[in-house]
Amino acid sequence: MTASSHLMQADEVAPKVDQALSRLGMGATMFLIDQEQLLLRALPVPGREVPSPLPVAGSLPGRSYMLIQPEPDPGRPGRLWVPLLDGTARFGVMRFALPADADAHDPAWQQRCALISGLAAHLVSSKLTSGDTLHRLQRVRPMTVAAELMWQMLPPLTSSHERLALTAIMQPCYDIGGDGYDYAVDGDTAWLVLLDAMGRGLSAAVACAVALSAIRATRRAGGDLLEQVRAADENLVEQFGPTGRARFVTGLLAQFDLETGLVRYINAGNPLPVILRNADLLGVPTGGARLPLGLRADVATHVGEQLLEPGDRMLLHTDGVTEARAADGSPFGAARLTQLATYCEKERLPAPETLRRLALAVAEHRGGPPSDDAAMVLVEWSPAAAQRTLIGPLSPGDGEQRS
Amino acid sequence: MSQPYLSVTSADVTADITVLTVAGELDIRTEQRVRAEVSALLNRGRTHLVFDLGAMTFCDSTGIGMFIDVHRTVRAHNGRLRLASLKPFVLQCFRQLSLEQILDLYDTCDDAVTGHGPMDNLGTSPA
Fold first, then answer.
1. Residue A399 has pLDDT above 70, yes or no
2. In chain A, what are the domains?
3. A291–B98 CB contact, under 8 Å
4. B10 backbone φψ class: left, alpha, beta (φ>0; ψ -120 to 50)
5. Within a domain: B123
6. Distance from CA of residue B9 to its chain's centroid?
7. Residue B97's closest chain A neighbor by CA?
8. How many CA atoms lie within 13 A of A161 on its CB side?
9. Which of A183-192, A228-237, A384-393, B116-125 has the lowest mean pLDDT?
10. How does A279-298 read in b/e, with b if 16+ C-beta sit within 10 Å?
11. A198–B68 CB contact, under 8 Å
12. N or C: which end of chain A has fewer CB within 10 A?
């Protein structure tokens, strides 16, 4: 499978995986999650009937996706659902038909299938950009130009490492334009960025792209927080200054030391980040405040500092989250966001699932189409939290542990 | 989507100063009307502008961008922009963006016209 992958087209991933598994007396169907993380859609295999899309909510495969764990089908012996996980990025689920003598509850078989699904997810991830087939399956409707621009700039939604779980989410998926995030984990440092360009649509997306690229290029060249912010300022002014119309981008940039827990940050007009300790609100760091990126002031920029303890969680969000308004005008609110985040922590949900549920709650509160983008970045400084973003637990009848 | 309510009126209150009263929702759909009013005033040579925002119920990022543009434009004409009577929600939003570093904010329209008692302590605490 790996040997034949070099020349593989995007649309050949599922047939090749299927072929390889049938030689082992197994069958497998891959389901990709859609951009909004609501629907699982099967990758077609020529000559086979394409299964109907499956909702994440209330389904067994959905449960496998949400809780990142294998789910044996109680109604069909030998059928096992396993998350499709590349690194810690969730691509969907895989439906296995095990050989006749195999038990789907057997941890050894679950482990084998997790290994195969990991390889398959890696193929999906590496072939994503070589064709449009996989992108099409991830979309239930076309992207706007602004959303197309933004998504191709952004790193995967989830990227955990030994010391931290790191995940992000953005809405509305098919129509984002203005919000964006970035991160980089190297050595003992995790860099985090969450941006929100003024306005909406393509012009906001372009402004966000300019700010994000300026920050990223400066960071990769070894620049510190202040240099990253300065680069964003300069490039925004250069791009949009001559038009005579201010174009600014609010943003939070943080440099998180994974050994000491020290977070150094600059808050250029974003809502205050939320820090949770033992499922309680520890506080909102108010330092490092400055004007939005692209508006230069004569006042010097200060860097704020916040010391985290092992196990702490930090939630960054844009104002589209807390200011999402219901039909009666009531905002979603910071209190509700904190309350829900602490509930998810008590439930020990995987970090990406916490954000998926927070985003769903915001969308439900709003009811209708959003008037602003809503984006969040969640960091959990905890090896256990990082483990929860991997496939597990692998044991029979243990499925209730994370429900 | 129905057009949100916004009204903008202006009155010359001194030899130099014109007060613009904005009421309703200032956002991407309505900001152009305020820009048009400001343009008309600049064409008449009115460059010292006070915005009475006591009845402005909403201001999004596009509205804020407009105030920054107006601030820059009147400065380029040797004029001045002062904003007065911001509602608490709007003021909180301006504070979140540290906008008091570039915009002059006043408690009341009278203060803004006389230039007395600018709200100079809005800044978030330094790091």
1. no
2. 3-136 (3.30.450.40), 143-387 (3.60.40.10)
3. yes
4. beta
5. no
6. 13
7. A269
8. 10
9. B116-125
10. eeebeebebbbbbbbbbeee
11. no
12. C
Q: Which residues on neighbouring strands pair with residue A180, listed in sequence order? A: A195
Pairing of strands B17-26, B48-59: parallel
A337's tokens: 């966001």
> Is B98 a domain residue?
yes
Task: Tell me which residue in B60, B61, B69 faces A244 most closely, judged by beta carbons.
Answer: B69
Look up the CATH number of the domain holding residue B98: 3.30.750.24
Of B58, B63, B14, the C-alpha closest to B38 is: B63
Residue type, A328: D
Residue appearing with tokens 């069958």: A27
Alpha-carbon distance A359 to A346, whole Å? 18
Distance CA A102, CA A97 (A): 10
Q: Which helix (H) or strand (E) holds B8?
A: strand B6-12
A305 at the B interface (CB within 8 A)?
Answer: yes
What ipTM, to 2 d.p.?
0.81
User: Based on the structure, what is the number of domains in chain B?
Assistant: 1
Chain B interface, best mutation among A245, A249, A250, A267, by max B CB count within 10 A: A245
pLDDT digits (tens, 9 = 90+) for A155-196: 999 999 999 999 999 999 999 989 999 999 999 999 999 999
Q: Alpha carbon A86 to chain centroid distance?
A: 12
| Contact predicate A169/A157, CB 8 Å | yes
Count CB atoms within 10 A of the CB of residue B23: 16
| Domain extent for B109 | 6-114
Contact yes or no for A124/A84 (Cβ under 8 A)? yes
Beta strand B80-84 with B48-59 is: parallel
Residue B125, in any domain of the structure:
no
Burial of A184 (0-12, 13-18, 19+ CB in 10 A): middle
Instruction: Give per-residue pLDDT as tens, B60-88.
Output: 888 999 999 999 999 999 999 999 999 99
